[in-house]
Design a protein that fits this description.
The protein is an all-alpha fold. The chain has 3 helices and no strands. The chain has helices spanning 13-23, 29-52, 58-96.
Length: 115
């Protein structure tokens, strides 16, 4: 189920608006994932370049540092994605959860076919 779909697979604009309001300026989980995938691709390229570099070359050390930095950035983006996805899913679950009947709620048994 994508971030903009309800359980029936149809978009729920009201739910998405509530999520947007709840997150404020914070990016959506899909945006975090996109950033993470971009950096993961750069990480793969850096690993290939490092593996092809001469270990005695200064470029090798620079690539090692770049790889460490990219790994950390990918890890942080994965955490941000997971946290934001959890928040989005929690908001959706709250919006779609049936409301419990509480004492004092109006309920006419005759309208429900019980009377």
């Amino acid at each position: 189920m994508s971030s903009g779909e309800s359980r029936e697979g149809q978009s729920d604009p009201q739910g998405e608006q509530v999520i947007e309001e709840f997150l404020g300026e914070q990016p959506r989980a899909d945006h975090w994932r996109s950033l993470k995938e971009t950096l993961a691709e750069r990480l793969r390229d850096a690993v290939v370049a490092r593996d092809e570099a001469d270990p005695d070359d200064l470029q090798f050390l620079a690539l090692e540092k770049k790889i460490r930095d990219l790994r950390e950035q990918v890890r942080v983006l994965a955490e941000e994605e997971a946290i934001t996805r959890f928040v989005e899913d929690s908001v959706r679950a709250t919006l779609t959860r049936p409301r419990n009947f509480q004492l004092g709620d109006e309920f006419d048994l005759d309208d429900e076919g019980y009377g």
